[in-house]
Inverse folding.
C-alpha cells in the first residue's frame, strides 16, 4: 500500500475513534435537556440506524474473521517450513493475500461504527444515556481493546515481510494477540446487543444491580458463539469471492493457479463452519425462548415465522452452491471419472433433501387452495422429523463428496485396502440408514421423544464421520498419487458460483440481523425500556427484504472499493509458491 | 437384466435438453395433478429447486454442456425428427412465458393469499393487562371442583373441534377450510410453550373475522373491544375461561410457562 493510502487509513481510524468518544463527551457536559428522540438524518432514524448497524456488523464480521483463518494458515505454513518449504511458502502467501484485504476494510469498519455511534447518540439520546449508564465501564474498556486490535492489525500486516524467518514466531504472536483483542471487542459489543434482548442485572425499573449479570446475560454467550462461527463463514466466502474475481482477471497461469487454490480454501473453510451454524443458532434461539415465551412465539409462530422459511431457502442456496463448487473441483483432478459418476445421485439427494427442508408446515395458500387443515403430503413433510432426516442426509452427502475428493487421483497401497474400503462404505451406509430409521421412529413418536431422536441423529452423524474419517485417513496414509490437482483448471462458472455465494451470505446476514433486532418488537430493552418513537413498528417482510437488499448492495459497493484499494499494491507470490503453482497448473 | 441395460442406454441417448424438459415438465405436472391441491407458492418453491438441480446436472461436466448446446445447433443431414424436436423445445419457452403472463394478469375473484401465523404475535402491553387469578397461576390450587368444571365446559364447548382427547381430532375438525387444523393441546408445540395470559388472550380473542385466519371463535365478551365478534362471545365468563385453561394444562400434563 502506498504511503498516501497508509496516511489516509490512519486518519480515518483516528477520526473514527474521536467520533466514537464524541457523543459520550457531549452527554457528560450536561446543561442541555435530553430529549427522548431526535431526527438527525433526512430519513427515518430507525432506518438510518438499521442500515448503519448492519453495514458496521458486516465489515466487523469480515475484519474479525479473516485474521482468524489467515493466522491459522500462516501457522500451518510455519509448522511445515522444515518438512516442506514449498507448502510453507504457499501457505504464507495465501495468509498474506487474505490479510491484504484487511487494512481498507478495517477503515470501513471504523467509519460505519462511528456513523452508527453518531446516529444512535443523536437520534436516541435517552436510550443511549441509559445504556451508557448501565455499561459505563465497558464503554471505557471497549475503545482500549479496539485500539490494541488496531495496532496489532497494522503491525501484523505491514511487518509481514520483515518478520519472516527467525522472527516468524513473533509475527504469529502478534497475529494471536490481534485475534484475542478482536474477539474481546466483539464480546463487549455483544453484551450491549444481548442486554437489549435478554436484560438481567437490573431491577424492574432498569436500575443497575450487577454489571457482571448485565454483561453475562442469557443471550450473551450464545450470540458470541454464533457470531464467532458465522463470521468465519462470512469472511471465508468473501475471501473466496475475492479469489474468484482475481481468478477471472488473472493474466498468467501462475496467478490463476494461486487464486483457484485461494477460492478452494475459502469455500472449504465456509463449508466446514457452516456445518456448526445451525446448532449455534438453535442454542441462541433456545436461550431466547427460555428467557421469554414471547420470543418463541414471535420468531417461530408469529410475525417473524415466515422469515425463517426465507432463511431455509437462502441456506439451501448456500449449501447447494458450496456443494456445486466442491463437485466442480473434481474437474481439477485428471482421472476423477470414478468419483464423478456419483455426482448425479448426490445431486438428487441434495435437491430433494432441500425441497423437504424448505417445505412450510402451514402454507401461504389462497382460500381455493386451502385443504381444511394440514395438507396430507406437505403437512407431513413440513414436520421436524422428515426435515431432520433430509438435512442430516444432506450432510452425509457433503461429507462423502469430500471423501471422494480426497481419493481422486490417489491409489490405496495398504494391504488391508479392500477390506478397509468395504468396512468404511458399509459404515457410511449404516450411518445413513440409522439416521433415516431414527427419523421415521421420531415421526410417529410424541413430541418429547421426537426432540430426543433428532439429537441422536446428530450424534450418529458425528460418530459416523469421526469413525469413517479416521479409517479413511489410515487407508490413504501411504497412498500413491497418480494425478496431481491441476490448480487453475477450475471452470470459470465455478468462480461465478463463489461470487454468488458471497452475495447470498451477505443477504442472509442482513436477514438474520433484522430477525435478531426485530424480535424485540417495540422495546429498546426488552421489558424495561419501550420504544415510544414514531417508527417503532416492524416493517412488512417485503419492505424488510428491500432494505436488506439495499444494504447488501451498499456493502458490496464499499467492499469493491476496499478490494480495489487492496490491489493497488500487488504482492508477488514467492518464487517457490509460483513454481509450485505453475507446476500444478501445467 | 439385459432389458434394463438397454432401457438405461436408451435413456442416455435422449438429447439432454429434452431430458431437462421432461424432468422439469414432469415434476410440474406431478405437483399440479396432486390432490388435494398443492398451493401455488409451494409449487413455485419446489420448481425453483428442481430447475437448479437440472442446471447443476447439466453444468457439472464440460462434455454435458457441449452436448446440451450442440442440440440447438443445426447439423447438416440431421434427421427431421431432431429438427422438429429442437423447434418444439424452443417454442416451449415463449409458450410458458405467455401462459405465466396470462395467469398473472387475468382478473380473478379469489381473495389474496394470506400468510398464516400459528401463534400470532401480541404485544406485552396487551398481555400485561390480563390479570391471572391467583388460583389459576398456581397449579397446587387447581382442585377437583375447578378441574371438573373446566372439563365440563371444555366437553360442552371445545371438544367438538379440539377433540375429547384434546388432540385436535374433534368431529368438526375436518369441516373447516382454513390452513390449519384445531390445535392439538397434547403436542409440545402448543400450550406447553405458552404463558397463561397468552392462552387466555387467544381464547378470548379468537380468530373469526380477523387476520389470524382461523375458525377459533371468540368466547368471552370484552368490555374494551367490540371489533371482532362471534356467536359464542357471551358463552363463557372470564372465570369459566380460566377453568377451561387450567383443565387443558392439567389434562395434558403440561405446566404453563411463567416467563
Amino acid at each position: 500500500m502506498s504511503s498516501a493510502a497508509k496516511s489516509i487509513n490512519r486518519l480515518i481510524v483516528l477520526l473514527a475513534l474521536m467520533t466514537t468518544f464524541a457523543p459520550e463527551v457531549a452527554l457528560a457536559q450536561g446543561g442541555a435537556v435530553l430529549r427522548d428522540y431526535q431526527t438527525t438524518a433526512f430519513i427515518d432514524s430507525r432506518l438510518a440506524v438499521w442500515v448503519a448497524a448492519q453495514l458496521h456488523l458486516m465489515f466487523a464480521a469480515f475484519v474479525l474473521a479473516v485474521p482468524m483463518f489467515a493466522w491459522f494458515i500462516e501457522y500451518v505454513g510455519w509448522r511445515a517450513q522444515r518438512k516442506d518449504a514449498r507448502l510453507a511458502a504457499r501457505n504464507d502467501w495465501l495468509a498474506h493475500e487474505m490479510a491484504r484485504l484487511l487494512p481498507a476494510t478495517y477503515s470501513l469498519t471504523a467509519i460505519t461504527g462511528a456513523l452508527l455511534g453518531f446516529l444512535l447518540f443523536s437520534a436516541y439520546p435517552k436510550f443511549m444515556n441509559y445504556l451508557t449508564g448501565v455499561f459505563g465501564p465497558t464503554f471505557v474498556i471497549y475503545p482500549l481493546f479496539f485500539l490494541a486490535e488496531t495496532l496489532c492489525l497494522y503491525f501484523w500486516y505491514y511487518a509481514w515481510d520483515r518478520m519472516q524467518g527467525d522472527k516468524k514466531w513473533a509475527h504469529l504472536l502478534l497475529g494471536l494477540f490481534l485475534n484475542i483483542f478482536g474477539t474481546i471487542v466483539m464480546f463487549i459489543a455483544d453484551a450491549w446487543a444481548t442486554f437489549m434482548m435478554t436484560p438481567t442485572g437490573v431491577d424492574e425499573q432498569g436500575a443497575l444491580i450487577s454489571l457482571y449479570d448485565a454483561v453475562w446475560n442469557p443471550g450473551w454467550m450464545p450470540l458470541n458463539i454464533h457470531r464467532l462461527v458465522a463470521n468465519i463463514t462470512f469472511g471465508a466466502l468473501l475471501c473466496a469471492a475475492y479469489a474468484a474475481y482475481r481468478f477471472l482477471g488473472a493474466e498468467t497461469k501462475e496467478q490463476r493457479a494461486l487464486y483457484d487454490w485461494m477460492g478452494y480454501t475459502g469455500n472449504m473453510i465456509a463449508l466446514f463452519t457452516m456445518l456448526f451454524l445451525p446448532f449455534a443458532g438453535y442454542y441462541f434461539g433456545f436461550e431466547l425462548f427460555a428467557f421469554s415465551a414471547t420470543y418463541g412465539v414471535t420468531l417461530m409462530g408469529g410475525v417473524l415465522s415466515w422469515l425463517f422459511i426465507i432463511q431455509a431457502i437462502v441456506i439451501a442456496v448456500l449449501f447447494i452452491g458450496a456443494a456445486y463448487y466442491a463437485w466442480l473441483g473434481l474437474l481439477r483432478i485428471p482421472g476423477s471419472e470414478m468419483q464423478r459418476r456419483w455426482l448425479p445421485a448426490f445431486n438428487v439427494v441434495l435437491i430433494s433433501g432441500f425441497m423437504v427442508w424448505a417445505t412450510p408446515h402451514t402454507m401461504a395458500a389462497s382460500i381455493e387452495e386451502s385443504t381444511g387443515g394440514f395438507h396430507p403430503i406437505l403437512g407431513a413433510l413440513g414436520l421436524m422429523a422428515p426435515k431432520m432426516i433430509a438435512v442430516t442426509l444432506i450432510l452425509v452427502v457433503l461429507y462423502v463428496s469430500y471423501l471422494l475428493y480426497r481419493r481422486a487421483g490417489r491409489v490405496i497401497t495398504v494391504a488391508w485396502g479392500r477390506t478397509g474400503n468395504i468396512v468404511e462404505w458399509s459404515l457410511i451406509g449404516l450411518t445413513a440408514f440409522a439416521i433415516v430409521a431414527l427419523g421415521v421412529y421420531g415421526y410417529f413418536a410424541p413430541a418429547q421423544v421426537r426432540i430426543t431422536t433428532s439429537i441422536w441423529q446428530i450424534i450418529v452423524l458425528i460418530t459416523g464421520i469421526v469413525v469413517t474419517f479416521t479409517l479413511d485417513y489410515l487407508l490413504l496414509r501411504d497412498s500413491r498419487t497418480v494425478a496431481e490437482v491441476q490448480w487453475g483448471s477450475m471452470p470459470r462458472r465455478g468462480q461465478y458460483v463463489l461470487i454468488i455465494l458471497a452475495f447470498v451470505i451477505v443477504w442472509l446476514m442482513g436477514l438474520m440481523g433484522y430477525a435478531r433486532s426485530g424480535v424485540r418488537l417495540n422495546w429498546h430493552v426488552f421489558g424495561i425500556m419501550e420504544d415510544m418513537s414514531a417508527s417503532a413498528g416492524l416493517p412488512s417482510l417485503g419492505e424488510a427484504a428491500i432494505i436488506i437488499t439495499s444494504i447488501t448492495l451498499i456493502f458490496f459497493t464499499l467492499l469493491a472499493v476496499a478490494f480495489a484499494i487492496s490491489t493497488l499494491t500487488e504482492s508477488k507470490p514467492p518464487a517457490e509458491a509460483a513454481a509450485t503453482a505453475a507446476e500444478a497448473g501445467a | 437384466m439385459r432389458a434394463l441395460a438397454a432401457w438405461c442406454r436408451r435413456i442416455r441417448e435422449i438429447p439432454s435438453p429434452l431430458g431437462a424438459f421432461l424432468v422439469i415438465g414432469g415434476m410440474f405436472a406431478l405437483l399440479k395433478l396432486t390432490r388435494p391441491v398443492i398451493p401455488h407458492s409451494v409449487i413455485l418453491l419446489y420448481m425453483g429447486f428442481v430447475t437448479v438441480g437440472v442446471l447443476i446436472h447439466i453444468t457439472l461436466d464440460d462434455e454435458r454442456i457441449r452436448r446440451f448446446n450442440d442440440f440447438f445447433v443445426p447439423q447438416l443431414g440431421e434427421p427431421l425428427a431432431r429438427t422438429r424436436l429442437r423447434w418444439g423445445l424452443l417454442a416451449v419457452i415463449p409458450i410458458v412465458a405467455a401462459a405465466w403472463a396470462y395467469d398473472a394478469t387475468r382478473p380473478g375473484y379469489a381473495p389474496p393469499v394470506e400468510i398464516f401465523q400459528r401463534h400470532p404475535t401480541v404485544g406485552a402491553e396487551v398481555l400485561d393487562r390480563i390479570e391471572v387469578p391467583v388460583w389459576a397461576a398456581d397449579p397446587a390450587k387447581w382442585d377437583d371442583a375447578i378441574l371438573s368444571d373446566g372439563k365440563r365446559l371444555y366437553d360442552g364447548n371445545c371438544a367438538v373441534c379440539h377433540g375429547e382427547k384434546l388432540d385436535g381430532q374433534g368431529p368438526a375438525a375436518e369441516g373447516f377450510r382454513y390452513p390449519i387444523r384445531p390445535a392439538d393441546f397434547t403436542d409440545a408445540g402448543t400450550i406447553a410453550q405458552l404463558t397463561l395470559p397468552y392462552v387466555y388472550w387467544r381464547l378470548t380473542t379468537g380468530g373469526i373475522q380477523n387476520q389470524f385466519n382461523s375458525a377459533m371463535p371468540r368466547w368471552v365478551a370484552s368490555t374494551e373491544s367490540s371489533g371482532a365478534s362471534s356467536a359464542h362471545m357471551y358463552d363463557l365468563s372470564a372465570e369459566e375461561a380460566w377453568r377451561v385453561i387450567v383443565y387443558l394444562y392439567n389434562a395434558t400434563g403440561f405446566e404453563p410457562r411463567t416467563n
